[in-house]
Amino acid sequence: MSAINPVVPLILCSISCLPPEFFCKIIFKLLSADGSELYSTLPGNPFVKDSNNRVVAYSRMKEDDCFYGFGEKTGHLDKKGRRLRMSPKDAIGHDPETGDPMYKHIPFYIRVNEKDRRPIGLFYHNSYDCVFDLGEELSGYWERYCYYQTDGGDIDLFLLAGPTLPDILNEYTLLTGRSALPTKQSLGYCASTMYYAELEKNCDEEIYKVIDKHEKEGILIDNFWLASGYSSGEEDNLRYVFNWNHKRFPDPKKFFENMNARGINVIPNLKPGILKRHPYIDLFEKNDVFIKTPDGKAPYYGRWWGGEGRFFDFTGPKGRDTWKQLLEENILKMGTKTVWNDNCEMDGVEDRDAQCDFEGKKGTMAELKILHSNLMAYTAKHALAEVYPGERPYIINRAGYAGIQRYAQVWGGDNLTDWRTVKFNIATILGMGLSGCSNMGCDIGGFAGPAPEAELLLRWLQNGVLQPRFCLNSANNDNTVTANMNSSSANTSTRNSQHSRGRSQSNAMSSRGNEAKANSQPKSAM
């Protein structure tokens, strides 16, 4: 039994290294300075290791406990009564209320009792796939409990105590990293859709027309998210990261020059999977950049866009250095200052015994799968620093592990066009904020499904203007583009919302002092 200063984090060391016969004998309680119980393992059955080597940590819970955080999750903000899985997936079109698992893996939550309002933070420092049961499971032989179950590794638990939720978050981000400061331009309006980069030819000219139309309506674009169609092969239309389709973009550097001259930051999409006919496949094979089969003798092949693919190994210097080289030469030096990392859940690597370099120590995807997404952002940060020294980096990730906030803004992936999505995306964003990742947004109008009706888009825009990331992005299944000019009411709402958002940004930024010249104020704030 232990009592601690309520603002000092306590580290409960790893226990799965102990013999199984000791697991049920470990009783641990955390008390506040006045002797009140903040946390306790479940008496009589705190830790269990099953025949599949999964380790379970049982904690006592009370009927009045609420559970917040867990990173990116669907449904209501309080997760009490749910069973949540962390095994990042390419979760396109997920149900906004019940869908699980999602894209990110952040095994941290804050428990607050409704009666005494005392918060306690729990961070399980383990990247294996895991499950949190928050009171869904019941047994008449035990008092009320919740549990954490991991597919491997240790129960490496950090208990974070403090008088308020902000104190808990402060301690958590002290451990995992503070959020990267955003650029001013990233706070502006972002336009995107898969359609604009999928035309047979001259996509650049179509994009110019779209921007002209926006400007004519008084809607100013600060960032243009360029979908992966720009990288498609000219003969087979398959995605090849770092490649440029010159039928669609005849002069990529000139395209960036024109967009930058108009004050628009172009953000090209990047994906870590590599198809067999990739133009740079000889370089990739020579530099030995891929995740390998379990025996380490050959590259691992898994599911990917357009067929079997191999996957960059960001846990070793060969993969990171090769990625950084092409990122600098083929993307950043074209004229962009932003990196958009997509499909970085590595969901196509299905064999959890596939081998990663792990800085020469060799490791498995079972442990390292989600860490590739953080390391992909880490690599982008170093590339941006080399090409644009002294400037604030702007990186966007779809997937991430605890600490991703140190490097990147994140977004909620391929959400569904549905009225419920507008409602529950709010809780998803707030849950990420309560997990240390406050710089997050979800696609306005929905990414997957049909085009939104006019009323739905209007309300989504009015809601979305309050998100840290304000972006319309779509891949509608009826071959339409979700645009804020689809109706006059949406048009007016977007213009008014942009002006309100711009004033808020200006006031917030002026209160924090001046920034570097490179981080100019968004046009939509003018």
Walkthrough of the structure:
- The structure is a single chain.
- With 526 residues, the protein is of the alpha/beta class.
- It has 11 helices and 28 strands.
- The protein has helices spanning 20-23, 165-176, 203-216, 252-261, 281-287, 317-330, 365-368, 371-387, 419-433, 454-464, 488-511, and strands at 2-3, 10-12, 29-31, 37-40, 47-49, 55-60, 65-69, 83-86, 104-105, 108-113, 119-124, 130-133, 145-150, 157-161, 189-193, 223-226, 265-270, 273-275, 302-304, 307-311, 338-341, 355-356, 363-364, 394-397, 400-401, 409-411, 440-441, 470-472.
- Strands 27-26-24-21-17-16-15-28 form an 8-stranded parallel sheet, covered by helices on one side. Strands 2-14-11-10-7 form a 5-stranded antiparallel sheet.
- A hairpin with a 2-residue loop joins strand 19 and strand 20.
- Helix 6 (317-330) crosses helix 8 and helix 10 packs parallel to helix 11.
- The longest helix has 24 residues, at 488-511.
- It is globular.
- Mean pLDDT is 90; it is low at 1-9 and 507-521.
